[in-house]
Design goal:
Elements: E1 2-5, H1 8-12, E2 15-16, H2 20-32, H3 41-51, H4 56-60, H5 84-92, H6 96-104, H7 118-137, H8 141-162, H9 164-168, E3 175-178, E4 181-184, E5 192-195, E6 202-206, E7 223-227, H10 244-250, H11 252-260, E8 265-266, H12 267-274, H13 278-290, E9 294-299, E10 302-307, H14 309-314
Parallel strand pairs: 1-5, 2-6, 6-7
Antiparallel strand pairs: 1-4, 3-4, 8-10, 9-10
Helix pairs in contact: 10-11, 11-13, 12-13
């Protein structure tokens, strides 16, 4: 059990972030143990042939049987707008000591593939990760990011309606909050208490954790990676729910979109989910917004749509 002790200033410093490098590192879990990640099996199937041409030895050495990855692959994002190129630049410059200690925190000894000169080993690791990103995650990142951003918008609405404690107690069954302490149930056998020390806690939604993940090493900046809502919508093409009365009023496609917006989503995500173009989705969303059924908010580079109170009532929610 990991417990983060938060002061009043730490509670004011609870923030969200998105890290492409976190997603990249954590995704190696599903590659090594696909049976534990059923929601990502479609992604694994689509990328199977691409992964055959990658440096599998280097990539597999970055995750162990307990599904732990080194802390240097789980950076604390400074904002929801973190770019993978910026994170790679930092990873390129990690010290030999950080690299070795990170690997030894998940393995009993240094993996053979990284047993050579540290600088050379670091170059091999970053090269393997870059190729892995380009082949397997970059093509799907816009939709992944849309799901992660939608999750953060949802959590923000929970804070506004029910308070910070309700949000923290709702992000995962492995995370709980009470009286200034955030507890994270991890697979590690030992327990430890970390004092945030005024740095707050960064919450990172991810597609590749089942319950919750946190840094392995003691003294790391408070970070909780939790499962994003809507992972199951990543690959499925929706057919929409049927409501004859509502269809007669606003049309079949707009009824499907209004129903789908039970969780915030971008027009790009909705287009993929329903198998139609983003421009067609935008046309329908504008009509729904003009009717007062849908509202929107900008999050980073994306515009996320969600149902208004009138849209909630009309859809029977």
């Amino acid at each position: 059990m990991l417990r983060y002790q938060l002061s009043e200033s730490d509670l004011g410093g609870v923030r969200f972030g998105i890290s492409p490098l976190c997603e990249l590192g954590l995704s190696l879990r599903s590659v090594s143990h696909p049976e534990r990640y059923p929601l990502q099996l479609p992604w694994l199937a689509r990328t199977e042939s691409l992964r055959r041409d990658l440096d599998g030895a280097a990539l597999s050495a970055l995750v162990n049987e307990r599904l732990w990855t080194p802390d240097f692959l789980n950076p604390r994002p400074a904002s929801p707008l973190t770019r993978i190129d910026d994170e790679f630049a930092v990873l390129d410059g990690i010290s030999s000591q950080t690299f070795r200690s990170g690997l030894l925190s998940i393995h009993t000894e240094l993996p053979d593939v990284f047993a050579g000169p540290p600088k050379q080993a670091i170059r091999r690791m970053t090269s393997a990760l870059r190729e892995y990103w380009e082949a397997c995650l970059k093509p799907h990142w816009p939709r992944m990011r849309a799901i992660l951003e939608a999750d953060i918008v949802h959590r923000g609405r929970v804070i506004a309606h029910d308070g910070l404690a309700a949000m923290l107690n709702g992000i995962s069954s492995a995370v709980s909050y009470e009286r200034g302490v955030v507890s994270v149930a991890l697979s590690a056998p030992d327990s430890r208490i970390e004092h945030a020390g005024g740095s707050g806690v960064t919450l990172v939604p991810t597609m590749f954790t089942r319950r919750a993940s946190a840094p392995i090493g003691a003294g790391e900046a408070p970070l909780i990676m939790y499962p994003a809502r809507g992972q199951g919508t990543m690959w499925a093409v929706e057919t929409g729910q049927r409501s004859t009365a509502l269809e007669n009023l606003i049309g079949a496609r707009r009824t499907e979109l209004l129903t789908a917006l039970r969780s915030p989503a971008s027009s790009t995500e909705l287009g993929i989910r329903f198998g139609i173009s983003a421009s067609a989705v935008n046309q329908h969303l504008r009509a729904l917004a003009d009717a007062g059924l849908v509202t929107s908010t900008r999050y980073g580079h994306s515009v996320l749509y969600f149902r208004s109170e009138l849209g909630q009532a009309l859809s029977g929610a």
